[in-house]
């Protein structure tokens, strides 16, 4: 035992003699701790932290016992009591810290996964938009060159080409508008001015705007309301939601089919349901319907006059900006898109 009056060199000599015994008793404990850590390598972080704290405390405990020759005296009892108190304090702290670190690790992993998913979505969007922009631009260029070179000179043909160029230009303008709207939503720059909006006016205007498209495709559009609720929302954005859903339903309903718009109230929500005749969505694709630029199988691939596959993504973003919910499920001969919006305060 080191005496109080010993010199520093004598203390070093004692430590040199004690070292083999301390290692002899402490190393097996450390090795056992390493084995336990190996077995817990797939366990929780809290368990790993607890073992990491217990190993040095237990090694110190056993080392002190071994060096003392298991001869209990007041000094040894004090040392063992100190080790026990250290364990009582550090083990709960290790469990708490382990859980906090594990929770943060899970959050960081989920954040990385969301970032990767967003990056993949952006790449997919760029690919889709690049393809969709090239098609009308190539058509406009070809028709403009034909007009400029005098290949098309008959007045009727010139008027036809001018009408086609105007149509393609309108399509490009709508795609750019969709991109701008989607960028506002995803960037959190969308500012809504909420007021009490009668849903009757929104639905009537949207159906009137889409009626020419429905007539050209020979699709019947019906509206049925149990009651016409008043919702808390922004008029232009609500109109965009209904217009996108109805346009999507018309586009995917075959000729002579029917699109049904139903309005009702469920608790504190106004419910807007749009049924189409698309033939249904496969189960492995229905969860991706609102993804940016997702178009699904050939059965639901839009015609060349459609936009860039952003309508449903924009509708979802606008619904959520109104603190509402939107969903889709297969229903009857097609699928049903259902929007729930909070009712305006009375």
As a percent range, the share of strand residues is 5-15%
Structural class per helix/strand content?
Answer: alpha+beta
> What does the radius of gyration come to?
36 Å
Encode the helix/strand succession as letters. Answer: HHHHEHEEHEEHEE
Mean pLDDT: 80
Shape: elongated
Share in helix? 55-70%
Order of strands side by side in the largest beta sheet? 2-4-5-7-6
Sheet having the most strands: 5 strands, mixed
Structural commentary:
This protein is α+β, with helices and mostly antiparallel strands and 346 residues long. 61% of the residues lie in helices and 13% in strands. The protein contains seven helices and seven strands. The chain has helices at 8-39, 45-67, 74-148, 155-186, 199-217, 235-252, 311-321, and strands spanning 195-198, 220-225, 230-233, 258-266, 269-275, 325-331, 334-342. The strands form two sheets. Strands 2-4-5-7-6 form a five-stranded mixed sheet. A two-stranded antiparallel ribbon has the order 1-3. It starts with 7 loop residues before the first helix and ends with a strand. The relative contact order is 0.08. Residues 298-307 have low confidence and may be disordered.
């Amino acid at each position: 035992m080191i005496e109080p009056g010993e010199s520093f060199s004598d203390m070093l000599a004692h430590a040199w003699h004690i070292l083999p015994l301390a290692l002899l008793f402490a190393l097996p404990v450390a090795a056992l701790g390493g084995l336990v850590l190996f077995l817990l390598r797939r366990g929780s972080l809290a368990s790993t932290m607890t073992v990491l704290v217990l190993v040095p405390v237990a090694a110190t405990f056993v080392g002190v016992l071994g060096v003392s020759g298991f001869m209990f005296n007041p000094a040894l009892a004090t040392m063992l009591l100190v080790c026990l108190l250290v364990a009582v304090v550090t083990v709960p702290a290790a469990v708490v810290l382990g859980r906090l670190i594990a929770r943060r690790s899970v959050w960081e992993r989920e954040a990385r996964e969301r970032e990767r998913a967003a990056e993949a979505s952006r790449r997919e969007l760029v690919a889709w938009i690049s393809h969709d922009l090239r098609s009308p631009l190539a058509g406009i260029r070809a028709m403009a060159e034909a007009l400029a070179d005098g290949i098309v000179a008959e007045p009727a043909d010139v008027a036809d080409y001018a009408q086609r160029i105007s149509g393609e230009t309108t399509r490009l303008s709508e795609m750019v508008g969709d991109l701008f709207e989607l960028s506002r939503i995803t960037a959190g720059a969308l500012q809504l001015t909420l007021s009490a909006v009668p849903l009757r006016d929104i639905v009537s205007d949207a159906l009137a705007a889409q009626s020419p498209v429905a007539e050209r495709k020979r699709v019947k559009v019906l509206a049925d309301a149990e009651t016409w609720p008043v919702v808390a929302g922004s008029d232009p954005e609500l109109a965009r939601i209904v217009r996108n859903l109805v346009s999507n339903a018309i586009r995917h309903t075959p000729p002579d089919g029917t699109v049904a718009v139903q309005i009702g109230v469920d608790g504190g929500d106004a419910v807007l349901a749009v049924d189409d005749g698309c033939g249904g969505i496969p189960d492995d694709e229905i969860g991706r319907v609102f993804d940016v630029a997702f178009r699904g199988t050939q059965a639901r691939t839009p015609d060349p006059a459609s936009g860039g596959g952003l309508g449903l993504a924009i509708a979802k973003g606008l619904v959520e900006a109104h603190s509402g919910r939107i969903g889709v499920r297969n229903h009857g001969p097609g699928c049903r898109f259902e929007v729930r919006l909070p009712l305006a305060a009375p």
